[in-house]
Amino acid sequence: MLVKYIIPLAMAFAAVGCSYKESFSYKGDELVNFTADSLYFSFGKEPFAVQDTTMLIGVEIVGSPAPHDRHYRVRIDAEQTTAVEDSHYDAFETDRTMPAEALSTTIPIRIHRLALDDETVYRLRLEMEATADFGLGVSEYRSVIVCFTNRLDCPDWWTELSHWLGEYSVRKYQKFIELWGNPITSDDVKENKYAILRTFKEVKAYFEAHPEYGERFPDVDWPV
After folding, report:
1. In this predicted model, what pLDDT tens digit does every residue of 158-175 receive, in sequence order?
2. CA of 4: how far to CAs of 43, 70, 179, in Å?
3. Quick one: which of 79, 170, 168 has its CA closest to 119?
4. Taking the model in full, what pTM does it have?
5. Exposed, middle or buried by CB within 10 Å (0-12, 13-18, 19+), for 185?
6. Contact criterion met (CB below 8 Å) for 165 and 158
């Protein structure tokens, strides 16, 4: 399982509402906020063996630390959330604790890769709620949109090898990345075609041994 401190990205899927604004702090009443208004994570180029990840959602107080635990609360905005609890991500406690002497903490949200399709950018929108211990800070950070996806677009070079690889599949390419060590380019295919095909032959063998994934390769002779 991967644990990711997700860096907000302005350029990542802006169309689904993921944007970035700098974190802030100032002195005043005891308030609580998220540390960003949006977060984004893609499984796309992660090795196929990585079947889940934990996104850590930052929370910070605006004020002073206390010598005792304090409580804050978040709410899932069902109208703007497309991810399904206990399918795409694990359920989590919405009544939470800011530890004694802490200025910040995180909300871990475990995402399940195999429950995601290969195209959708999923959204989970959280809103901060006031409690007896904390009021709400500035409006920009009272909510956070958490975006995640398994999308990995078909590379340009796939058609050159499609005689052996068959129809493009995100899982085929992700398993290749796992075995090869990184994604590849058209230049890599030109320079190392047969080494790449040998690795894809291992991918083929893997999915033949695991038919539950439903991946198929053409029944043709391989030059390696």
Report:
1. 999 999 999 999 999 999
2. 11, 25, 22
3. 170
4. 0.80
5. exposed
6. yes
